[in-house]
Design a protein that fits this description.
It is a single chain. A hairpin with a 2-residue loop joins strand 1 and strand 2. The relative contact order is 0.11. The protein is mainly α. Among the domains are: 216 residues, Alpha-lytic protease prodomain-like; 75 residues, Alpha-Beta Plaits. GO terms for molecular function: monoatomic cation transmembrane transporter activity.
Length: 463
């Protein structure tokens, strides 16, 4: 892995089937008749459907599907590195083992006695922490190995089952939030107008714009599902991110307006020391707080699975703080000092602006195209390396966001003597396999015959 381009050279990722340690797998014969025998002996568990024969008869060896691997092959012997739960429990840091060996000598006994008498709690906690970190490392390694050895079809099936199981929960979260926000906006509108509290006006403004945000998310979701491929050949997935950004800036603009009104009230001052206390308004905001808490808990489990629900969860989280702090400052302004209410409105509006601007920054990162996480890059690299024995090396792997999903670019290396048909079929099947992954929107597979050339794509282009 070199720099941010995530470049994999032939020396870094050679084909496992061109190595002498590849589980008794020999070099792929370049003779076409031998290649045919290999094709007949190789099953296609990873890709159950064979590509359609384009032309020629069955006797044409170039019309046969390219050789592929099954999960049982495990050419890199990753399964041998899995640790059982019992083995992980017995793992001890090497530093502790060295201490045990040193403890047998008089000098080691003196050092251990001195260190434990100085701070025995610190020594014990440090040992437990290092052991826990080491065990956590092997648990994470097990998860990574199991994820890479899982067939692509299993990833697709799991994603479909998750979507099917969460479909009802998604509708409850979105439509339930929409209905609740409409009712709460009416309640908080009454509370703000009846009390005249700027803090409650801040909560009211946030509540009034919540149904608008829900409507935006619903419209974006429908737009994504209804795509004209002639007008939008790349789909409309990025419209979700664009809608989220628009809503973030809308909420920030409302917060700035409330800040301006609060500053004006502070400058004008007040003749009385406290404001007027209005109990029904406070009760209305308390009802909104409890409702938002219930929606927050419900959306918490689904926030990492659906982008719209993540935005709803963030909105409910922000509303909890806004409503709670708004109640305190409104009551404080009516019971303690009048300036607590407008000052609380300013603090609330500034915090709301910061929260939504941070969310907008995150959405902009997705829209611009930020590198995918390491786990996803590892999975894409492993799938590409083990796709076919005709692939001799992996030159480059790139995965970056394009809205809520990923774009993938893979440069594979094949023998220059391979036929155009074989090269095309290998690249096409790898492209379809990568695009079937749940988080991938589009995959591009490029074929080369060597890795010593300069980078083919540049980040900066002169016009």
């Amino acid at each position: 892995m070199e720099d941010s381009h995530f470049r994999h050279s032939a020396s870094h990722h050679p084909s496992p089937f061109n190595s002498s340690q590849s589980h008794q797998l020999q070099h792929l014969p370049r003779d076409r008749s031998a290649s045919m025998l290999y094709n007949e002996a190789t099953t296609t568990a990873l890709e159950p459907h064979s590509p359609q024969q384009r032309s020629g008869s069955f006797s044409d060896e170039e019309g046969q599907p390219p050789p592929r691997y099954t999960p049982e092959n495990d050419p890199f012997r990753l399964a041998s590195k899995l640790k059982t739960a019992e083995e992980i429990k017995q793992i001890q840091p090497r530093a502790n083992m060295a201490r045990k060996r040193d403890s047998c000598t008089p000098a080691g006994i003196m050092r251990m006695t001195a260190s434990t008498t100085k701070n025995p709690k610190e020594a014990l906690s440090g040992s437990l922490a290092s052991k826990s970190q080491l065990q956590g490392f092997y648990q994470t390694q097990n998860e990574n190995i199991e994820r890479m050895l899982k067939p692509v079809e299993e990833h697709v099936r799991t994603a479909r089952e998750t979507n099917a199981n969460n479909q009802l929960k998604y509708k409850i979260a979105v439509y339930g939030s929409f209905a609740a926000n409409i009712i709460l906006s009416v309640l908080q509108l009454y509370g703000a107008i009846a009390s005249g509290s700027l803090s409650l006006f801040t909560t009211m403004a946030d509540a009034v714009f919540d149904p608008m945000s829900n409507l935006t998310l619903l419209l974006c979701n429908k737009a994504v599902n209804r795509v004209d491929p002639r007008k939008f050949p790349a789909g409309k997935a990025r419209i979700e991110t664009a809608g989220n950004i628009c809503f973030c800036f809308l909420m920030t603009a409302v917060s700035f307006i409330i800040i301006a009104f609060s500053i004006r009230e502070l400058v004008q001052g007040s003749e009385s020391e406290t404001g007027e206390f209005h109990l029904p308004s406070v009760i209305a905001v308390i009802v909104a707080f409890c409702t938002k808490f219930a929606l927050f808990v419900y959306c918490f489990a689904l926030r990492h699975q659906v982008s719209q629900i993540r935005i709803l969860w963030e909105d409910h989280r922000n509303d909890l703080f806004i409503n709670g702090f708004g109640i305190l400052t409104s009551v404080g302004g009516s019971k303690l000092r009048w300036w607590i209410d407008p000052m609380g409105a300013i603090i609330l509006s500034v915090l709301v602006s910061c929260l939504w601007l941070y969310t907008a920054y995150h959405e902009f990162q997705l829209l611009i195209g930020v590198t995918a996480d390491t786990k996803m890059q590892q999975l894409i690299t492993y799938i590409s390396m083990t796709h076919s024995p005709l692939i001799t090396a992996i030159d480059t792997v790139r995965a970056y966001t394009s809205g809520p999903r990923l774009l993938v670019e893979v440069d594979i290396v094949m023998d220059p003597n391979d036929s155009l048909r074989a090269t095309h079929d290998v690249a096409e099947e790898l492209q379809m396999k990568l695009e079937s992954l749940p988080d991938v929107e589009r995959a591009y597979v490029h074929v080369d015959y060597e890795t010593t050339h300069k980078p083919e794509h540049f980040l900066k282009k002169e016009l």
